[in-house]
Amino acid sequence: MHTLVLALSTFLSVSPALAGNDPTGLKVDATKSQATWTGKKVTGSHYGKVSFTEGEVHIQNNKIVDARVVVDMTSITVEDLTDADYNAKLTGHLKSADFFDVENYKQATVSVKKVTDIKEDADGNNVMIEGDLTIKGQTHPVSFPAKVSVTSGKVVARGDFKFDRTQYGIRYGSGSFFDNLGDKTIDDMVEISFVLIAGK
């Protein structure tokens, strides 16, 4: 009897499936991670970048368990306008209360709650990510496919998703809330393309 108990105790202490297999926390590398935004309107579109401040990704068995990433909304840039005055004007407008109100809401967050393996598609996406996006203090669910690689304690994730800005109180130029905007109408959907890198 004592031999059986000892053997079972030894098995439990060394079995990786039952012990010592807690999620590992990896820090987001804010210097290598970045997101690109694209906003469209009747007469064209604009795009730019926004930086990550910090974040942590938890992995287990070479898969992402959950994650939380903080976005620095004060870092918004416009990349498609070469005229310095026009660029500064649009950048300032995006930071104003008409849009992201960065004076009062300096950060946005993405909280990943679930990552599910999927059959790899033509873009190389191999997981479905589900979580919450918080902008201007308001939180709504998001889900999107992404390409994720977890090797040697390093995570590289790439993906694209869209969010409805009006859900976060950003209604400026929205045809869903204002009439007769004509060619000044701005699309409600904002496109995000991101690269996220995390490691020990």
Task: Tell me what the structure shows.
Helices cover 12% and strands 50% of the residues. The protein has 200 residues and is mainly beta. Strands 1, 2, 3, 4, 5, 6, 7, 8 and 9 form a nine-stranded antiparallel β-sheet that branches. A hairpin with a 2-residue loop joins strand 6 (127-135) and strand 7 (138-151). The chain starts with a helix and ends with a strand. Residues 1-20 have low confidence and may be disordered.
Give the gist of this structure:
The protein has 200 residues and is mainly beta. It is 12% helix and 50% strand.
What are its keywords?
200 residues, mainly beta, nine-stranded antiparallel β-sheet, 9 strands, disordered N terminus
Written as H for each helix and E for each strand, in order along the chain, the element string is HEEEEHEEEEE
Helix content: 10-25%
Return the average pLDDT rounded to an integer: 90
Uncertain parts: 1-20
The end-to-end distance, rounded to whole angstroms, is 44 Å
Shape: elongated
Radius of gyration: 21 Å
Strand tally is 9
In what range is the share of β-strand residues?
over 45%
H/I helix tally: 2
Main sheet summary: 9 strands, antiparallel
What structural class do the secondary elements suggest? mainly beta
Write the layout of secondary structure elements.
Elements (H helix, E strand, L loop, with lengths): L1 H13 L9 E5 L5 E8 L2 E17 L2 E10 L11 H12 L11 E11 L9 E9 L2 E14 L2 E11 L21 E14 L1
Antiparallel strand pairs: 1-3, 1-9, 2-3, 2-9, 3-4, 4-5, 5-6, 6-7, 7-8, 8-9
